[in-house]
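Comment thread on ticket #2218

A.B. wrote:
> Attaching the input chain for the structure job we discussed in standup.
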Amino acid sequence: MPALLPWLLPPLLLCLSNVFMTFAWYGHLKYRAAPLAVVVLVSWGIAFFEYCLAVPANRIGHQVYSAATLKVMQEIITLTVFAGFSVLWLRESLSLSQLAGFGLMAAGAALVILKP
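C.D. wrote:
> Ran it. Output below, let me know if you need it in another format.
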């Protein structure tokens, strides 16, 4: 199992880090009455935990993935987490054009990740 950790741990850590990042960037949209200065400080605090997961994910992942692959993996995870967050937390629906755009971005990511 330890030989699989560099392959499996980065996507898992990136998923967790993206949950924190999404809340840091967009979670406050539900609380429009909160002062902007407070929102920035709270978001910054949440982002700290995102970095605590993303940096090790990239350090460990770079043993077996290229930097470009890690970045593309992170972006696709970000889109997936954001789509769920948008629907579940913000109660916003996703349009067909948004889903199509996400799909095109995923197709582009596949070109980087599934290199010949």
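A.B. wrote:
> Thanks. Noting for the ticket: Residues 36-61 form the longest helix (26 residues).
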